[in-house]
Amino acid sequence: MLKAHQKKSVLVLGGGIAGLQAAIDLGNLGFHVYLVERSPSVGGRMAQLDKTFPTNDCSICILSPKMNECSSHPNITLWTYSELIKIEGNIGAFRAKIKRKSRYIIEDLCVGCMQCVEECIYKKPKFPNEFDLGLSKRKPIYKPFPQAVPPLVLIDAKTCIQFKTGNCEQNCAKACERHAIDFNQKEEITDLKIGAVVVATGFDMLDTSGIEEYGACQIPNVVTGLEFERLLSASGPTTGHVLRPSDNHAPKKIAFIQCVGSRDIRNHTYCSGVCCMHATKEAILANEHDREVMSTIFYTDIRAAGKTFQEYVTRAKKEYSVSYIRSRPAFVKEDENTGDLYVTYEETTTREKRSDAFDMVVLCQALEPSGTDGLSEILGFSLDAHGFIQIPNPLSAPVDTTRPGVLAVGFATGPRDIPESVVLASAAAGRVAELLRS
Amino acid sequence: MGKVRIGVFICHCGSNIGGFINIHNVLEYTRGLPLVKHTEDNLYTCSDGGLSSIKEKITEHNLNRVIVAACTPRTHEALFRRACEEVGLNRYLFEFVNIREHCSWIHMNEPEAATEKAMELIRLGVMKAAHLVPLEAASTQVKPATLIIGGGASGLSAAVNLANQGFDVHIVEQTGKLGGLASRLWKLMPGDRLAHEFVEPLVNTVKKSKHIKIYLNSIVKEISGFIGEFNIEVKTPQGKKDFSVGTVIVATGARELTPIGLYHHGELQGVLTQLELEQMLKRGRKRFRNIVFINCAGARTPDREYCGRLCCATSIKNARYLREISPSSSVTVLQRDVMAFGTEFELEYRRAQDAGVRFIRYEPDRPPEVIGEKKVSSVRVYHTLSGEEIMLPASMVVLTTPLIPNEGAAELSRMLKVPIDRYNFFLEAHLKLRPVEFATDGVYIAGAARFPVDIREAVAQGIAAAAKAAAPMTAGEVILEATIARTEPLLCSGCGNCEMVCPFAAVEVRKDDKIQNKSFVNAVLCKGCGACTAVCPNGAIQQLGFTDHQIFSMIETMAFEDGSDVF
């Protein structure tokens, strides 16, 4: 199906929704794509979400087909657990070095049957599960999450007895009938020749431990937005039952505090763009799970500026017992006997000072670019004042960075929701086709 | 193709299936089923060894149907079909039975019942496989040309991208000039560039391109055909023009809502819209006195519930410009929520505040009141945060109104058979993951015709739509689904149910001379969703690969102990 002049290769960095979409579109345009993802599976942040606003689509259910499409696409080479370490050359003729970290599993042999995990010397999971943000546990040998692509296990050398003592019974290796476990596997460096790069490295969450007034990381029943998302998820630590961490009781009154570290001169001055809507969604879902749940969202402005977003907020108020109070709460205090929380705030529209009790508090913390500092050194592009990848000419070239042939999309370039990220990803594919064909 | 000879391959999937289901018993049971000539189990049927075994056994036992009882077709069907094809067996003579998700996983606490269910599902699979017929996937050529309807920022960006990829482009623009709404603005954000510095180079590139043909003062009169070859009729001032293209991009944009009856617009002198203000700034007006902006004029109301997305940003931008141009002016923005999302808009919001723009929050149930006789003189507003009603002197009131779709969207939606919402914005294939596509293949959507966008988003969506359109044109052909619907004309009564439910506009009841009032399925457009087959009262429309014959044979066999009676 390919035309000869299109047999050029493109490197896509990041296997979240933006990177997946860019890779699929580039593959469909006849380019060979190397999709390089730092973590052991593609899927990114979207894989961790329970549902997506404003349609309440199950997130993994709509994402998973894209993940599989990427791994089975004839034009896409998928390298997870891998990183770009060096790039030289110019547009049309870059040479990239990719480090393929060792997962201590021979990828071609492993089929993800989990027999090794079953037989691991640790009978019970003991170490924080990254996918569940530490809310659940995993073994040293594990599959990142049930729908992981590739559907393979990996060994975390930091927690594995064999790596720590050199003296494990290696039950995992004995259990593997396909002999896929290789404790001596070394990381590999692979050289690639590529014509262009698309960066789609997404976001991380602001570390909220500095936000003491809300008891982040101190009070057990104060969780972050993404942690709450995992509590809602059927594949999460509580199999979809929202239970508060201190006593596993089902909360009935939940407070969401917006702009935690966003629009805040102490942390990030920018608006993180998606929190008003994800709080609204989480409040709706909590009520769908248990109709007695009443949520209060403490907001600065409700930024529901996308297609059908206003309607979604209206529905939250009318049908899902969600109330919105315009306020930035002063502090959250815990009743240590009950684990209940008191949120003290001024309701700005009535100028009334109040302190209300809640069973749980969700902090919608700022989202920040992930790993762009290092990438800007390797790839030689500029960042903006907040650390997002700079798009010098956003009006006429909305995906071009300061380095020709290096494009950037998704949250790495500024707060974007899923459809915006998908649009930019497709635009990057179009831009690559334009650059490498003309 | 002679007698049916079925091979059944049962997968342990490591311990995923084998750990719960008694594979030995399933194997014995399957061996006893009619028409089954070969059975085997594999630790992993999907492994190289498993796939080689399928291929060997097809040849060795002269198998003409293959069943794999394993995991899900979603991830593995293509793999097994390919294996069959490699040894000359039509890929549609393969049948998948899911005994992992449907048996071992969901019933892992009841292994015996799960084993029984696996046997039952395999029996149904055997029954269906016996009735499978070979199918061929056809393909259709795709013409390397695109029709772009609308010559605004997104349409032009799509055109330049496609032209640079070497495709021919036809732009049909309703007005007499290219550039769209952007060309009527003064300055753009972010970056404070004059709008014409953005629009003119874009328009010039389009005009100079040898691949792009421009039809001004023109409208699309008729569109027929489907991906690969759409036949287009355009009405131009020079008369009718016909041409054909492989793909279509809808970029018809939007216009500013004229706030008829709102805040005395059109009644009092000095009540303008943002666009009217931009034009005043464009003409070079330098002196402003007491200016009051009212945001959400005609937006976020019960009858127009949506937020205009970029109106807040527009008001923030223009409010600051007024303060900068005329430092003695007083500029107040009456707002509800300030939609300054992201990095740049939030920064602009701060810049406006730093420049001395006052922002006052009002509540929708106590909206501002514009006062004056003939000419606007003041605005009364309930200041939410201070809890007082205040009077603002006003020499000019600027209403920030949302974008609404351009006229003609409904007509275009009919022609292209693509949906629109209650405001006449086009409805994309999927709000989250397919924002620039329609469910109909070969037709794409970009810019404010879908929902209000700023310039940057309009351009990005234009290029994204171009990338989508370029994919089938680069390949030169699209491979069609083989498992599509097909009508048996003798049984069809022409009731039209099928046409009504088809989400892809693939079915139509034809009323021409040759085929009288019969349903016809367009093989290019049909996705094989089966909606039409479910509503046909006569069983006239059948889904290949899932015919009544095949499905009913499975259902009937469940009524018998071992299914043997129905063969």
Give a brief rundown of this model.
Chain A is an alpha/beta fold.
Descriptive account of the structure:
The complex is a heterodimer of chains A (438) and B (567). Chain A has 438 residues and is α/β, with parallel strands linked by helices. Chain A has 3 domains: 4-101 and 187-202 and 370-437, 3-Layer(bba) Sandwich (FAD/NAD(P)-binding domain); 115-175, no CATH class; 207-367, FAD/NAD(P)-binding domain. Chain A has helices spanning 17-28, 44-48, 59-72, 115-119, 161-165, 171-175, 225-232, 275-289, 309-319, 372-379, 418-437, and strands at residues 9-13, 32-36, 51-52, 57-58, 76-79, 82-90, 93-100, 127-128, 137-138, 141-142, 154-155, 188-194, 196-199, 203-205, 222-224, 253-260, 294-299, 322-326, 331-334, 341-347, 352-358, 360-365, 367-369, 406-408. In chain A, the strands form 8 sheets. In chain A, strands 5-2-1-13-24 form a 5-stranded parallel sheet. In chain A, strands 15-22-16-17-18 form a 5-stranded parallel sheet. Chain A has a 3-stranded antiparallel sheet with strand order 6-7-12. In chain A, a hairpin with a 6-residue loop joins strand 19 (331-334) and strand 20 (341-347). Mean pLDDT of chain A is 95; it is low at 1-5. Chain B has 4 domains: 6-135, Ribose 5-phosphate Isomerase B, Chain: A (3-Layer(aba) Sandwich); 145-255 and 404-477, 3-Layer(bba) Sandwich (FAD/NAD(P)-binding domain), CATH 3.50.50.60; 271-391, FAD/NAD(P)-binding domain, CATH 3.50.50; 485-544, Alpha-Beta Plaits. Chain B contains 15 helices and 30 strands. Chain B has a 5-stranded parallel sheet. Chain B starts with 5 loop residues before the first strand and ends in a 10-residue tail after the last helix. The mean pLDDT of chain B is 94. Classes of the chains: A alpha/beta (438), B alpha/beta (567). At the A-B interface, helix 1, helix 3, helix 9 and helix 11 of A face helix 3, helix 7, helix 10 and helix 12 of B.
